[in-house]
């Protein structure tokens, strides 16, 4: 049974930076790991994903050039470095994982992920 624990959220000013971490534990493999986010009264949306081995990545257009996803496969940990933060980035950020190595076109689909963390709040405000 995989368990995911996120950390690193907080309050930052526009233009600031945060780095989120997610640790996966348990015997189940986490071959594809991702970050999603959800603002109040809005649907959960894809942010970024990374595949183990070749470390192939996928980003939603709104964060390209600002966010970077990375992982330490030996520790089953995924990171999200967020720079040039905007108020519209405010949301609860969720870590997700699956044992599958999805092709690029499937990595951004939330229904492909089997395990989810509790979320960490990111607030971008002056």
Q: How do you describe this structure in short?
A:
With 126 residues, the protein is mainly β. It has no helices and eleven strands. It has strands spanning 3-7, 10-12, 18-25, 32-38, 45-51, 57-59, 67-72, 77-82, 91-98, 115-116, 120-124.
- The number of helices is 0
Q: Helicity range of the residues? A: under 10%
Average pLDDT for all residues: 93
Largest sheet: 7 strands, mixed
What is the H/E string?
EEEEEEEEEEE
For this structure, the quaternary state is single chain
Q: Could you tell me the strand content as a percent range?
A: over 45%
**Model regions low in confidence, pLDDT < 50 over at least 5 residues:** none
Write the layout of secondary structure elements.
Layout: E1 3-7, E2 10-12, E3 18-25, E4 32-38, E5 45-51, E6 57-59, E7 67-72, E8 77-82, E9 91-98, E10 115-116, E11 120-124
Parallel strand pairs: 2-11
Antiparallel strand pairs: 1-3, 3-8, 4-5, 4-9, 5-6, 7-8, 9-10, 9-11
């Amino acid at each position: 049974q995989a368990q995911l624990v996120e950390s690193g959220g907080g309050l930052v000013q526009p233009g600031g930076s945060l780095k989120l971490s997610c640790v996966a534990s348990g015997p189940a493999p986490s071959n594809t790991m991702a970050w999603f986010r959800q603002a109040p009264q809005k649907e959960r949306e894809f942010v970024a994903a990374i595949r183990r081995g070749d470390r192939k990545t996928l980003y939603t257009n709104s964060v390209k050039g600002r966010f970077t996803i990375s992982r330490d496969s030996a520790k089953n940990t995924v990171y999200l470095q967020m720079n040039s933060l905007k108020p519209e980035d405010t949301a609860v950020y969720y870590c997700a994982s699956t044992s599958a190595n999805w092709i690029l076109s499937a990595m951004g689909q939330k229904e492909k992920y089997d395990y989810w963390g509790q979320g960490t709040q990111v607030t971008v405000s002056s």
